[in-house]
Amino acid sequence: MARGWVRDYYAAKLKELVERGEIWEIRRLMGPTGPRAVVEGREFIMLSTNNYLNLANDPRLKRAAIEAIEKYGWGPGAVWAIAGYPELMAELERKVAEFKRTEAALVFPTGYATNVGSIPAIVDQGDIIVSDELNHGSIIDGIRLSRAEKIIYKHCDLADLEDKLRQVHKKYNKILIITDGVFSMDGDIAPLDGITKLADEFNAMVYVDDAHGEGVLGEGRGSPAHYGVEDKVDFHMGTFSKALGSMGGMIGSDRDIIEYIRNRARSWLLSTGFPPAVVAANIKALEIVMTEKERIRKLWENREYFKKGLDELGFNTGKSQTPIIPAIIGDTKKTRELAKMLYDMGIFVVPIVYPMVARGTERIRNEVSAGHTKEDLDKALSAYEKAGRSLGII
Q: Is Kinase found in the keyword set (predicted)?
């Protein structure tokens, strides 16, 4: 047991979070995740997962995992650098390089570990990072762990990025521009064509976190492919945990760069790897995404249908350009009330409030998948209409 004063201190801190409405209510899944799932004993339409291509419960991923368990066992034994890793890992890293269209690739235990390990490995004292103001928290943490200086540019604002690059040009050893490919709260896409053009002009490196772009844009290969600038991006970061339906992180680049990161990224060197079963499932997921384009087409059909429905009801969907479709409410209390009403009607969503987003932009983040049926989406839209009118939002 913790000392009394320690327990009291954190109980008071927890109470503050509860009073501000800044605490997560964690729900229990009682079966596989998918377009519909059983939560706390009830079936829900799921609009809160990143399972864009409906691969999280795909039988082919499960079979690949089972076969790997039978051949390689379950546990990885230790960190990959010390205990080695299954021969499947070399195949996975080749497959990632093929997917990212890079010379080589490195796989991490999580997407978070990829950013907090790779960014500090890439830059050093005397370098500067130029970062979009709405970049993911894992990027922010990676920047904090680096010894480089940082400067923030306005969200997706090429003019401000150019101004910031002009300010730091020739003052640092290296400049690293970092951006999400797709921004996770608004669903908008970074202007990578303009970013890479500015990088050429100012001799900067480009790092793209494409966690929400893979499997969604560029016929599944992500936001650099969407813009046709894959060869202009120096560091292609991604994750298996969203459209690929599994877990783990990845980064692709030139062979020597990848080997350097492998030997310098502390979150790779000091983290136990995931089990061989996950490696096998990841390989299968990549194969599916690179070949089954109809899943991506279905995803976009569902995205267009659902966004149009929310827009016509009068909800503010912001800058959404992807299957991330926010319903921006702008008030913490009403956002939480809306989420509860939707939950009561069998629609699984969660309120996104400060500090996840800025005050005044509180929202429910909807994420449609290729697995949703028109019936699913119609039921969700009907619930939104009923709850939105009841609360005076629309």
A: no
